[in-house]
Each structure stands twice: as structure tokens, then as C-alpha cells.
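1st attempt posting a full record on here, be nice pls
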Amino acid sequence: MSANATEAPSSDLSRSSLLRKTTLWVLAILIMGAAIVYQRTTGPTYPLRGTYADDNNNSQKYKLVRSEWSSEDARVALPAPSEEYQAEVHYKRYKTKDEFKNVSMKIENTEGKQQLAGYLPKQPAAGKLEYFVTLKTPEGKSYRIPEEGKDNIVIRFKDNVPPYILWPHIIMMFFSILIGMRAGLGAAFAPDSMRLYVWISLIAMTIGGMTLGPIVQKYAFGEYWTGFPWGGDWTDNKMLVMWISWLIAASAIGFKPKKKEGPGRIVVFIAAVVMTAVYTIPHSIHGSELDYSKVDQGIDPAEAIKTGKP
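the predicted structure (as C-alpha cells):
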């Protein structure tokens, strides 16, 4: 009887610990998932989504491109219920006094879907075009996308980044979010597990963000680093702030348990808050941008890229 009485509390404690750790992992996964969704639906380089009403008042969903490889013309497409729909793309080089040029959109069938498609001419790395689309239905409905008075769509071109560089970078960054959030939650609710996760998250950020990130930047825009102190690229600066916060957290807790874990737990939790704040800022804001005024002066486009200005 006494043995069973001794084992019962221990068993309950184990179940409680397992439930707590499982809950923290679920929360960390949910936070990582929210960060992925948010980053994929915000920022100036992800497709502009919207709808228009066709002649039958059905809602037609569209995604208008805002990023493309510098080796390809950019395909701008709208759903077209029939071949009688007409549309044009109107574009010019971004931040120039160029006149808008018009490209007629033609019917194309892609993956079983009928679309009106027009193509924007490819630009050098970091080159940007601004554009809008006009659409007319068979019954005379007219649309301007975006609506009159709203900012035109801006698309940025980039040089090709090899998948064997790009995907490890992306995977390591989201892995670092997962482990970082688990470390932060551990600091608040399960400090016995936080130390390992802090170091794993820091290593993942060092590889994915501070090593592969600059390589991605080099492939895409010709420079390894365009953040502080050489530029104002927000993506690089966000990465730097986040990495430094976790470096401080790792230094604060060290490799071995301390008699007083409170200060270290606070620093780790703050690092997790910083990470959360970083991922609430849309991706690619104030990034690399081609200065067309320099290109028009005969300067090589590779030498006419600037960063950090809206």
C-alpha cells in the first residue's frame, strides 16, 4: 500500500510534465505557423490579392505578381470567364518620369483556367516597375486594379537564387522560430528545457540567417549585406537585431544550470518577444532598389542599386 501511495504522485507528476511540454510545443508550432502565414500574405513582394465582379456578379479572384526573376518577363494575369473580356497592363519604371506603356492582355489557358495575361518586360536585379490593370467586361463594366486613387502595384525583379541555397535558408529560419518560441515558452513555464532550445535556435539563426541569408542576398541583388552599418535594408537589420538578442540570451544562460535562473529566464523571454516583433514586420520592406536615374547615365545596373529608402 505504501509503495503504491508513493508511486501515484510520481506518476501524476510525470503526466503533468508531459502535458505541459506537449502544450508548449503545440503553442510553438502554432506561433511558427502564424509567422509563416503572416510573412506569406504581407510585404511588398507577395502577390496582390483581390476580386472583381463579372457580368454574372460572380466574384473572380486574382493574384497580381509583385516579384519575378530578372531572367523572365513577369506574367500579369486575371481570370476571364469568356474570351470577350478585354484588359490592358499599364506600366513604367518605378520612381521615374517615364510615360506609362500599355500591353494588351490576351486569353491563355493555364492549368485548365482561362485567363487574360500580359507580360511586363524583365528588369535587372533590384529593378522595379509600377503598374495597374484596366479591365472591361462584355456588358461594359470597367475596372481599374488597383482602384483610382490607390497606389499602383510595384513589382521587383531579382537574380536567380539556387534552390539548394534558398530552401535551406527558408527552412532554417522557420526552424529557428519554432525552437526560439519553444525556448521562450520554456523560460516562462518550463525552465528545465529552455537552455538546449536557446542554443539550438541561435545555431539555426546563425546558419540560416547570418550565413545563408547573405548568400541569398548576394545571388539575388549582388551584395552580401545591405543592412547596418552599410545600408538600411530592413530585412538584414531585422535579422541582425534578432540574432544579437539570442546571442545575448545564450550568453546569459550559458551551458550549465545556474543557482539563480531568474535573470536568464527573463533575457530568454525577451529574446522570444524580439523574435515575435521581428516577424510582425512584413518581409522585404526598404530592400534593394535599382536607381534608374543612374542607369540612364550609363552606369552598370549592378553598380546602381541602393537600399533602405522607401
